């Protein structure tokens, strides 16, 4: 197994998020880099995002169809191989045993080396964003599905053979310990977000996404980033980063 550092690319990865577009907003720079390097990625999208609009023209059914097509288009931009839609209802997600078991089924089926999800402990971001309850429910369910449930042979054997995930990459976290350089993939990240017409409308995500990734760079411990990514020239540090708390479950 290759060693863990900011350059580590797993052979396979699974993202588990609540809504179509969560993976693109949060981790698609990393995903684009990993798929380019040969990583097989599966997106698990728990809800249909079927109430995620303030526009009157949509019904829940029409929005489900639109967002599914957008998610599939974004996944193609990112080189993601599989997209799994669990079709739970938007804004009603809670971390039930049923949800945890559905996630165990997907983990055991696709057998990812790494799982990427949100941080269940993150409620507030600075003074402007209250984390969506679906995001917290998805995050807690993902983490509980990875550990310990997916790896316990005697638990739900009908959901597939037990599987040990090597590491969990927790994003949108207040306690990051790893920063991945997305300077080379930020354009692909922005392009994947352009697929979401129902969410971004006429808005161009370019500026906000660059601003956010640059803010991450400012916040990061650059000494550690440079040591991890082996960047030889300390005068040309990465411009754009995505931050993670990496939990290593298996060496
Ligand atoms: Zn979301």
Molecular structure report:
This protein is an alpha/beta fold and 251 residues long. The protein has a single domain, classed as Rossmann fold (3-Layer(aba) Sandwich), CATH 3.40.50. It contains eight helices and nine strands. The chain has helices spanning 22-36, 60-78, 97-110, 133-146, 186-194, 197-200, 206-219, 222-229, and strands at 12-17, 40-47, 82-88, 114-117, 124-125, 129-130, 167-170, 178-181, 241-248. The protein has a seven-stranded mixed sheet, sandwiched between helices. The protein has a two-stranded antiparallel sheet with strand order 5-6. Helix 1 packs across helix 5 and helix 2 (60-78) packs antiparallel against helix 5. The longest helix has 19 residues, at 60-78. The model has no long low-confidence stretch (mean pLDDT 91). Zinc ion (ZN) is lined by residues 18-19, 22, 132, 135.
Give me some keywords for this one.
8 helices, two-stranded antiparallel ribbon, binds zinc ion, 18% strand, 251 residues, alpha/beta, Rossmann fold
């Amino acid at each position: 197994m290759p060693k863990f550092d900011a350059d580590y690319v797993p052979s396979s990865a699974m993202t588990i998020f609540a809504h179509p577009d969560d993976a693109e907003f949060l981790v698609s720079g990393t995903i684009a880099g990993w798929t380019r390097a040969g990583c097989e990625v599966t997106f698990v999208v728990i809800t249909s995002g079927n109430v995620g609009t303030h526009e009157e023209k949509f019904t829940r059914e029409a929005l489900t169809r639109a967002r599914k097509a957008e998610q599939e288009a974004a996944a193609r931009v990112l080189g993601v191989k599989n997209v799994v839609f669990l079709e739970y209802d938007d804004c009603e997600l809670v971390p039930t045993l049923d949800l945890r078991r559905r996630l165990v089924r997907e983990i055991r089926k696709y057998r990812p080396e790494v799982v990427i999800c949100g941080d269940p402990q993150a409620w507030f971001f600075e003074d402007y964003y209250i984390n969506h309850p679906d995001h917290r429910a998805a995050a807690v369910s993902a983490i509980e599905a990875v550990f310990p449930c997916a790896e316990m042979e005697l638990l739900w054997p009908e959901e597939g053979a037990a599987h040990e995930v090597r590491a969990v990459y927790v994003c949108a976290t207040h306690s990051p310990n790893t920063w991945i350089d997305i300077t080379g993939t930020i354009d692909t990240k922005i392009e994947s977000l352009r697929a979401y017409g129902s969410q971004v409308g006429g808005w161009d995500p370019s500026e906000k996404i660059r601003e956010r990734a640059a803010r991450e760079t400012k916040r990061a411990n650059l000494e550690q980033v440079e040591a991890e990514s082996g960047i030889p020239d300390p005068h040309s540090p990465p411009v754009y980063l995505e931050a993670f708390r990496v939990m290593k479950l298996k060496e």
